Every structure is written in structure tokens, then in C-alpha cells.
Amino acid sequence: MVAGATAIEARNVVKTFGSGSEAFNALDNVSVTIRQNEFFTLLGPSGCGKTTLLRMIAGFELPTSGEIMLDGQPVAHLPPFKRQVNTVFQSYALFPHLTVAQNIAFGLEMLRRSKSEIDAQVDKMLKLVQMEPMRNRRVNQISGGQQQRVALARALAPHPKVLLLDEPLSALDLKLRKGMQIELKRLQMETGITFIFVTHDQEEALTMSDRVAVMSKGKILQIGTPTEIYERPSDRFVADFIGETNFTQAEVLERQGDEGRLRLCSGVEIVQQINSLAGIGDKVTLAIRPERIELAPHDDACQFSGTVQNVVYFGTDTTYHLNIQGGGHMTVRLQNRWGHQSVLQAGDEVGLRVPPEAMQVLKD
Amino acid sequence: MAATSSDAPVQETGLSRPELASRANDRAAMRRRLMLLAPAVLIITICGLAPLSIVLAYSWMQPAEYAGVIPQFSPDAWINLAFERDLFSDELLPNFAYYSIYARSIMMAGMTTLLALAVGFPTSYFIATRAPHRRNLWLFLITIPFWTNLLIRTFAIMLILRDEGVLNVILLKLGIIDTPLQLLFTNWAVSYGLAYAYLPLMVMPLYASMEKLDFRLVEAGYDLYASRFQVLRRVIIPLVKPGIVAGSILCFIPAIGDYVITSQLGGGKRMMLGTLIAMQFGPARNWPQGSAIALGLMIIVLIALFIYAKKVVARSNMR
Ligand SMILES: Nc1ncnc2c1ncn2[C@@H]1O[C@H](COP(=O)(O)OP(=O)(O)O)[C@@H](O)[C@H]1O
Ligand SMILES: [Mg+2]
User: What are the tens digits of pLDDT across the range B270-301?
Assistant: First the structure.
């Protein structure tokens, strides 16, 4: 494997459905580069264009404008059956007239592999997804989770360069889903195939991916590692969609290079990295994760102060909803590391301490 | 005894009174449902079973000299289906004349079915892939021939196929041929006419299974390196097979016994089952023979349908 070599590239891809007054851009100038052997996730709410992008990579749709490159070659002229890309469909789309083993063999048969090679590969795949005892069952005689594994084996069997997975786990219950997440990650590392994984579940995206692209309304808002998009969300939508976030307004008082002096709603002034768009006098939004805030008796080291509104116990942690002095609400989450010692109660006054690196200035 | 008998089932079956009451309701509902069937049963009895019984009775009688039957038992008509009595020695010989008629009828019905399938398959695929609100319009267009009188339809086909008919005129004008082609009164003309007449019977069941076809499976086929032809052969055809079989049966059965189209477009030159039966009731004046052929055809068709139904049921149970 060539480290960092490009597997797939989308260049300024636009996809318009409908025409005239009903024209609608399902994808709006999307550019992304996906590396070989990467577990790449497209994350976004339903209807943001994830499936559309996958279908264009697979070859079921053509871009209205822009280009899709596979291994550095434009593929607009290639029909789906000539692309070394396989799909695990959202609905699985297993062939109901074939058995489990016949489903897995289908792609290899179409590629006219020898009988012995097909048999060996089917056995290997059945073992990989632990479906050997079910090999002669029809696909409607197995459970949803098993169908999911067969769909995976069927798509992996021809050993494609890229595997596309369209919300493959969304139909499974929570426990099965957690198991399959680990399984998928293992399969990706074992096979060395590039995975492009689609999900609307941010937790799934964070736990499995090498890199994540966050999409909204046909656009890619941010591409980065799970840590980057969680810790350094580039805009409000990303910060809000991934995990829980507190937003608070601040005013730019002074700028020096990348740094700026901001006045928070509480009146406290801080020095912070700000994006280049904000000028003196501008309002900016700060994003603060609930688990990065410390609660303390109010003193000078606190950036905010507030009143506890209510306390919610979650087992692993406890969440405090606070009214902030100077405007707004904030959520603070504290781990119950030493057991649940609720010293705070509704109505208590408290100070909030936020490390500077936990405050992220967003472009609005 | 009468007093206890109403209690007895309660003890025997261990059912409580409400359950018994609901059973009685079920029975009443069943009776009402059977009453709904009554008109159908009446019509089938009067128009179907009664004539059929007469035909069955006639087939075991002797022909009268000027049509009709003599009510005397005779198995001759049935024996005749397969054997011919030698005029002189009275021994039974294979009835080759009939065999060739059977073979020709089967072949023509087969040709018709293949032709209807070849035309009907892409047609149904086309309709099934239209927008849902358009499909009914297309289906209606397909059934238009059905609303036209059979004789007029057949006559129209004759006008097209005649020596000086539309097709020959066009071919002559285009200079593709010098002399008119013999189109009418050929096997092709017959199966063309039959296929045209029975096309809706092929399209309807085919469309019904294609409409249910999950086109995501077609995409899955393409995704797994199947070319268009392979997707057709390995995915679409297996999935719509029930429709293909049903359509073929619906087409084959009326085609094998057809009389009007075969006699008009075939010119009566080559005898087929339909014309043979008609002849027995007409010029040949052998009603028992006509009855036996008609029943024999029906029995074979029923056996074939029965075998098919069992196979399909067995397979759908397996799924
Ligand atoms: N064939 C199509 N015709 C018209 N609109 C479509 C078509 N396919 C998708 N869309 C629209 O494009 C948008 C993106 O769809 P999709 O890519 O399926 O979203 P996602 O997979 O992220 O939920 C949706 O608003 C959807 O309604
Ligand atoms: Mg989708």
C-alpha cells in the first residue's frame, strides 16, 4: 500500500435533480479526496446528499457537473459493472432467489473466476463474517443482522478497491450495531480495502473513522479526523451536530495577528485565537463542550457565573443545566468518577471555569 | 338427553361459553360468505358444468347419420384420438393424421407463446418502469385490441398481410421485393394473429410480477459486475419467472384450441385442433368425435395446470 495515495477524488461535483423551478441541488460543489486504505465516513442528517454522493462513486448516477476520479482516472464513461467498487446497500438488496453462498459468489461469477477460486473465496468470506452454518439458507430465512453480514461478504468477495457502505447498521438494534462497528473496523484493517461509510449517527462516525466529512444540505462543511471535528469544529452546524455544545456570544475588542481580545457575555475579557473574518467590534460565537467546563465556587479564575436550574443524573455522569449571568444557558457535564456526590442543587450559585483551549471561535 | 347434549361439547372440548358463542358466529359468517358465492355457483353450473356433462355424455355415444348422436354406448370416439380402425382388417393402427394435427397445434401455440413473450416482456418492463400514475394508461392501451371484435381484428390483419396488402405494398414500393410475398395463410400469419390477440394475457401477469420487482436488486447486479444481459438473465428473469410462466400458460391454452384466427389467417389449409373440432360438429357430422377431442384437450390442459400449480406452491412454501 502506498501511504496516502488517492483512492477516490470528487472535484467540484454538483448534482441537480429536477429542472426549471423545481431544480434542486442534492450536491452543491462537493470536493473531497479519499486516500487508499482509509476508513472514510460521510456524516450528515438525512437528506443531505450522502447516498447521492455514494451512488455517483458507484456509477448509478452521473454528476451534473464536476468530476469523479478513481485511482486518478476520470470514470464518467464507466458503467457501474466496470468500476472496481462494491456497495453494501442501505436495504442490503440481497438476491431473494439465491442462497447465502450463491449471493456471495455472484460477483465472482460475473467476473468469470474459476470454479475453484470462487469456492475458496466464498468459504473465506463465510468464515470472515461467521456465516458458515447458514451457507445454504435462502436470504429470507436469516435475521436482519445476518443479512447485513451476507451483504458485507457479498460486496467484499470480489475484493474491490473501494467498498461503499450506505448506513449499513441503521436497521440493527443497539447491541448488534456496537458489535458490527467493531467488526467492520476489523474487516477494513484486515482486507486493506478503502471503506467509504455513510451514517447519520455522529457517535458511529467518531468511533470508527480515520477521517470524517460532515455534510449538510448538499455541501461538505468540514473534513478531518474525529478529534479534529469534535475539538475544532469549523462552524456552528458541525459543532451542534457532533456531540453537545454550548454556544455563547462574545465581542471582539482588539486584534493582534491571529489572537484577539474578546469580551464575554459575563463581562470577563479573554485572549483567544480567532478566525481572520472577525474584525474589531464584531460579535463572534464561542463553542464550549459541556464536559470541558469545571464548576467551582465563584472567583476571578472563572469566566462565567450562573445559577443551577436542574441536575440530571445519567449514571456515568451528571448534567447540570445552568442560567448564565449576562444571558443564556449552559450545560455542564461532570463524570461521576467518585460516585454521585450532588453537592449542588437547583438554585445554587456557581462559577464556571473553562480552559482557553476548550473555547472554539466559530465562523458564523 | 336433549337437555344435556347442548352442555356436552362444553365438557368435551373444555371451551368456555363465550368461545362457543364466537364459534357459532364464525359458522354464521361462513354461511354468509357461502351465500355470496351462490350466484357464481349457479352460473357455473348452468353454463359450465351442465354443457360439459352433455359433451362428456356425447363423447361416449355413437354419431347419428345427420348430425346429433344416437344414445348408444360407444368408446370409438375416444379410441379414435390415438388409433384408427383399419377399414378391412378392423385392427387398430396409430392415427397419424391426428398426431400431426396435435403436433402442429402444439407447435403453433408454442410459436405464439414465444412471440407474445418476446413482445410482451420488453413491453411489461417498459410499463413497470414508467411513473406509477402513467402505468394504468399504458396497460389500457395494451388491452385495446381486446375491446375490438375478434372478426374485425382478424380481418384487419388479413388486409395487412394479403398479397396486395399494406405490408407487401410498402415492401414493393421500397424496392426490397419484386413480387409480393406469400404472408397470409402461413404458420407465421397464424402465430402473428394469435400472439396479437393474446398479448394482453401475456402482458398482464408479466407486468404484475415486474411491478413488484425491486429495482435495487437490478442495481446490486450491476454493482457486482453483471453486464446488462447478465442482469437480465441472472436477476430479472429469475425474479419475474412466476409472471413468465403464468403469462405463457394463459397464452398457450387459448392458442392451442383457437378456431377463428387459425381458420381465417391459416386459410384452413392445415388442420389444427380448433378447426378439427369445428369440422366434427360441422361437415363431418361426428359429434361424439368432436366432443372427445374437446374433452381430451381440456383434460391435458388441466393436468398441466395442476402440475404447475403444485410446483409453484411447493416452491413458494420453500421461500
Ligand atoms: N432520484 C432523485 N430525484 C429527485 N430527488 C432526489 C433523488 N434522489 C435523491 N433526491 C433528493 O436529494 C436529496 C439527498 O438525498 P440523499 O442523497 O438520498 O440523502 P441522504 O442519503 O443523505 O439521506 C434529498 O432531498 C432527496 O429527496
Ligand atoms: Mg441515504
Answer: 788 999 999 999 888 999 999 999 999 999 88
**What ipTM was assigned to the predicted interfaces of this complex?**
0.84
pLDDT in tens, A283-309: 888 999 999 998 888 887 888 989 999
* Cα of A172 from ligand 2 centre, angstroms: 16
Determine the straight-line distance between the first and last CA of chain A, rounded to whole angstroms: 40
Q: What is the DSSP string of A246-299?
A: EEEEEEEEEEETTEEEEEETTS-EEEEE--TT--TT-EEEEEE-GGG-EEES--
Least CA distance to A94: which residue of chain B? B217
**Residue ranges of the domains in chain A?**
6-240, 245-362
In a domain, B87, yes or no: no
pTM of the model: 0.81
Residue from B305, B241, B248, B258 nearest B118 by CA: B248
CATH number for the domain spanning B247: value is 1.10.3720.10
Domain count, chain B: 2
- Please write the tens of the pLDDT for every residue from A175-194: 888 888 998 999 899 889 99
Q: Grade residue A3 by pLDDT with cuts at 50, 70 and 90.
A: low
Cross-chain CB nearest to A86 (options B216, B224, B230): B224
The answer, for B216 touching chain A at a CB cutoff of 8 Å, is yes
- Ligand closest to Cα of A90 equals 2
Q: Does A87 touch chain B if contact means CB atoms closer than 8 Å?
A: yes
Residue A25 CA to ligand 1 center (angstroms) comes to 9
Pick the CATH number of A245-362 from 1.10.1200.10, 3.30.70.120, 2.30.42.10, 2.40.50.140: 2.40.50.140
- Tell me the CA–centroid distance for residue A52 and ligand 2, in Å: 7
A58 interaction partners in chain B (CB closer than 8 Å): 223
Chain A residue at shortest CA distance from B218: A93
Same domain, B147 and B241: yes
**CATH number belonging to domain A6-240:** 3.40.50.300
Domain match, B129 and B19 both: no
**Enclosing domain of residue B177:** 96-318
Query: Rounded to whole angstroms, how far apart are CA atoms B141 and B84?
Result: 48
Do B51 and B149 lie in a common domain? Answer: no
Residue type, A314: F
Classify burial at A297, counting beta carbons within 10 Å of its beta carbon; exposed 0-12, middle 13-18, buried 19 or more. Answer: exposed
